[in-house]
Amino acid sequence: xxxxxxxxxxxxxxxxxxxxxxxxxxxxxxxxxxxxxxxxxxxxxxxxxxxxxxxxxxxxxxxxxxxxxxxxxxxxxxxxxxxxxxxxxxxxxxxxxxxxxxxxxxxxxxxxxxxxxxxxxxxxxxxxxxxxxxxxxxxxxxxxxxxxxxxxxxxxxxxxxxxxxxxxxxxxxxxxxxxxxxxxxxxxxxxxxxxxxxxxxxxxxxxxxxxxxxxxxxxxxxxxxxxxxxxxxxxxxxxxxxxxxxxxxxxxxxxxxxxxxxxxxxxxxxxxxxxxxxxxxxxxxxxxxxxxxxxxxxxxxxxxxxxxxxxxxxxxxxxxxxxxxxxxxxxxxxxxxxxxxxxxxxxxxxxxxxxxxxxxxxxxxxxxxxxxxxxxxxxxxxxxxxxxxxxxxxxxxxxxxxxxxxxxxxxxxxxxxxxxxxxxxxxxxxxxxxxxxxxxxxxxxxxxxxxxxxxxxxxxxxxxxxxxxxxxxxxxxxxxxxxxxxxxxxxxxxxxxxxxxxxxxxxxxxxxxxxxxxxxxxxxxxxxxxxxxxxxxxxxxxxxxxxxxxxxxxxxxxxxxxxxxxxxxxxxxxxxxxxxxxxxxxxxxxxxxxxxxxxxxxxxxxxxxxxxxxxxxxxxxxxxxxxxxxxxxxxxxxxxxxxxxxx
Length: 647
Description:
Elements: H1 3-12, H2 24-31, H3 41-49, H4 53-94, H5 99-114, E1 118-125, E2 130-137, H6 142-145, E3 148-150, H7 154-162, E4 166-168, H8 181-190, E5 194-202, E6 205-214, H9 222-284, H10 289-300, E7 303-307, H11 314-323, E8 327-329, E9 332-339, E10 342-350, H12 357-397, H13 403-412, E11 421-428, H14 435-455, E12 459-463, E13 466-472, H15 479-494, E14 498-502, H16 514-532, E15 539-541, H17 548-552, H18 558-576, H19 580-589, H20 594-601, H21 605-619, H22 626-646
Parallel strand pairs: 14-15
Antiparallel strand pairs: 1-2, 1-6, 2-3, 4-5, 5-6, 7-10, 8-9, 9-10, 11-13, 11-14, 12-13
């Protein structure tokens, strides 16, 4: 290349022409921000042109000064950028809203200013005693992003433990810190070589570590370490500010909750006063258990029900009785209703899992009021049962012969002695382990019978190891149906089989009290017959036993027995003028032989067969079975005797 070409090149590069001061080309290089290697061009050109040594030395000196100025300017620009980044970070910290966003900005700016491949931040976990990755920037390995470092493990663990910055030019060749398989595997996945870590400090306590790392060997300068330390201080301040904000918010939330509690307490006290007034009013005006439940439902803004002890979950019910407090069960609250050691039931608040202590006390007081009402009702019921039993005892023993007094006593118990009644004898049929259990079973039967009698406007009394009931017979009902229904109802109430024998209907008991005793004896005979026939737990009247009913019935209703047994055949003869009764009598007399019967009647055997077929249609297909045949023969003889008496 010719010298003219070199000079032209110098001018194109911004260098001064020959004869210019030695500083001029370097000033021009500084002005346009040329790279470092461009500062060698003026010196090389002067040597190529053969300029004096004095000129070359002056150019060398000017070059060095220019490079120093350039380095100073670069440092100032770098410090300006760092200060700007720190200022922006501090600004972000001042307007902190999201801690993760602030920490992410710190890590991003640290990576940008230090010019590293990766930057990341870890925080200490006091609960587990280690440190974990919180924010990463530039990371590509999932295992690295999920690392947890024990105190003293890896470079970060060493920084967290000693509270001092640490830097390594080559991580895997550095033995100043403890290497572990998990940490080394994560660092290897990320491809990191040079790592710088500085502690995050709150006072004298390390709360985490801020890192900058490269995937190639690198020496971190002191200014870079100081810069990363400044970012670490801002990160620690951000974390501390966020914690303070969290505590402040928690304190404000606590104050708000306290205010809400105070307001709620005021409302609860008013509700407690309201429920006290309502319950007092209920007791004074004779309200019932369900009235109490309804009143408490309104006060507690929920559904409160009274449940029997058997229908209530047993474990919380027993706990409530033992502790004397309402007990939560799933989404319900259960308050035991008890008197002494006896469980009477429970008040259950449905679907109300969150219950204020004062509201809980309200439920418990309502349970106490309920127990008092139940005891009062029981006392009244016991007194009424005794009165009902005394009246029935007087009727059975015929102690009071004055019909007017008997009617008045019955009217006070809502019973009508002028109505048609049935006397029923009831007894338990389950085996008893000992005398105490048997007595308890009898008391339960008497209590159930007394309740049944009270609801049906009748009377009940304990007698002869069982219970006797006097119940009105409704229109269209029968003694048999009433006996079976009573056996079923009493058995359900006492959870044991109860056998019931019923008398025939009796009337006008006030004028004829002796009829009650006779009817009771008939009911007892039916009861014993049921037990002997293996029909325990059933109910029946005398008419249900066929010809045995004649022996069981107190009035020996012969006409009724005949009518129930062969009444259709007798009626058929009377309407049609036939001779079925006589044919049936001859048939049994001749040993149930159609051939001998036709000789006895002097008719054709086909006539006998036709008449017997007609009898079968009237009496049923089983009329010639042994049991039915016996009843029919007895009815035929009684019918014959009755006809003879009428003649």
